[in-house]
Design goal:
It contains five helices and three strands. The chain has 138 residues and is of the alpha+beta class.
């Protein structure tokens, strides 16, 4: 029992320590994207990242029906409720994978971005695709 507790405590420490003091696009402390519904790879409400976030859930977006239909057509249904997920609706904020946002942007389907809640780390990925901070602001 003690070793199981120690493993859980260690895992929680690693996840939270790796998310400490992450910055937003304005180089200020990362703000909450959404707690209702709860978002973020670490489910803290913030678009934090760590070693295990292979999807790079860094972009805080205010989703709309157009985007929800688009992402569903690409195989990522964010609008249908499931036992562990309430489903998103028009106007909800959600931490999106950088690559999904870029794909939607290139196809004219990207939702608006909440700059203060978008992780600064997103910029390094976005630059690879020729997306600028100005593009996120529009």
């Amino acid at each position: 029992m003690e070793s199981k507790f120690l493993c859980i405590l260690t895992a929680v420490f690693i996840v939270t320590a790796s998310c400490k003091s992450q910055k937003n696009l304005n180089n200020e402390p990362l703000e909450i994207c959404s707690i209702s519904p709860m978002t973020g790879f670490t489910r803290t409400g913030k678009c934090e990242t760590n070693y295990w976030d292979q999807g790079t859930h860094l972009v805080c977006a205010r989703v709309n029906d157009k985007f929800l239909e688009y992402t569903k057509s690409k195989g990522n249904d964010l609008s249908t409720p499931r036992s562990w997920f309430p489903g998103l609706k028009d106007g909800d904020n959600w931490c999106l994978c950088v690559f999904r946002w870029v794909q939607a942007f290139k196809e004219g389907e990207a939702p608006s971005v909440v700059l203060n809640a978008t992780n600064k780390e997103a910029l390094s990925y976005l630059k690879r695709f020729g997306v600028t901070l100005k593009d996120l602001s529009n």
